[in-house]
Amino acid sequence: MPVSLPRLPVLPRPSVPRRAPRRSAMALALAALIGLGGTLPAAAQSVIRNAELSARLFEAAQDLRDPMLAVAAARLRKSVLAMQVQRQPVKEGPSAEGITPEPRLLSWQRMLDAALEMSGGSETIAKLADDVRFAGTKGVASGQVYSITTISGNGKDTYPPLEYIGGDYAEVYVEAKDTGADLNLFVRDGLGRLVCSDTDISAIAYCGWRPATSEVFTVEVVNRGPAASSYSLITN
Fold this sequence. Notes:
This protein is an alpha+beta fold. It is 30% helix and 25% strand. It has one domain: Jelly Rolls (Sandwich), CATH 2.60.120. The chain is built from five helices and eleven strands. It is globular.
């Protein structure tokens, strides 16, 4: 005769936290560390890593309309020193109509301007902004270079092979001007094998790896978003 099995309770589907709060929490922690004059972890002490972290802080500042985060982002961005070079990637997809490449990286001055605009005339924020503005620059330009180009919505840029020295830490970072862009970053070795990727949903992406031997690597930037954008590529 048939056996009646007990009905199992239907468990609620676990909610997946949205990306913005996680980013904001990380940014708040970084801002607190920077604001207290603490030392950032070793992974965050490179020029390229600082570029990424300052961009994430600034993204969170804009999301939350938080001028304190914007000041912290500017303080970190001020250490980003790199020389601009010209690179010509092979482009796939439609041309980025109506988009002009930015003349330079997003500057710490523009971050401070945004902080002051968000603050609504706060004297505290104005004083903190002045502290950043007149502080000495601790960054050192030591081989980091950047280039700026445009990418179409759903477009792909492939850069000529870059040579890296075996044993040295290699870094690549991309940062879009348009926050509606979704830049994915892929690094491949000379045989086309994937070495590193960053496919997070964001207008910025970072890859870091340590080559075992000196060889060339190919960098691919893919815009998964529909919006065309100017973007910067920084390498060491």
